[in-house]
Predict the structure.
Amino acid sequence: MKAQHAALCVEEAEVTVEELRAALERAGITLPSLRIDPASSAREAPCPRVERGGCSIEVAPRLAAAQR
C-alpha cells in the first residue's frame, strides 16, 4: 500500500509540473530547469517537491507579472 501511495504522489507531481510548464508557456515563459527535485523522490516514501531552478534577470519580472 505504501509503494502504491508513493507512486501516486510521484505521478501527481509529474502532472503538476507539466501543468505549471504549460501555464508558464502560455504566459511566454520557459523555465528549462522546471522539474521534480530528484532528491525528494529518492526516499523510501517519496514526497516530491517541484524544483523551479534559477531564471535569468530578464525572465524574473515576467514570472512575477504572470503570478499576479
Notes: The mean pLDDT is 84. The radius of gyration is 14 Å. The chain has three helices and two strands.
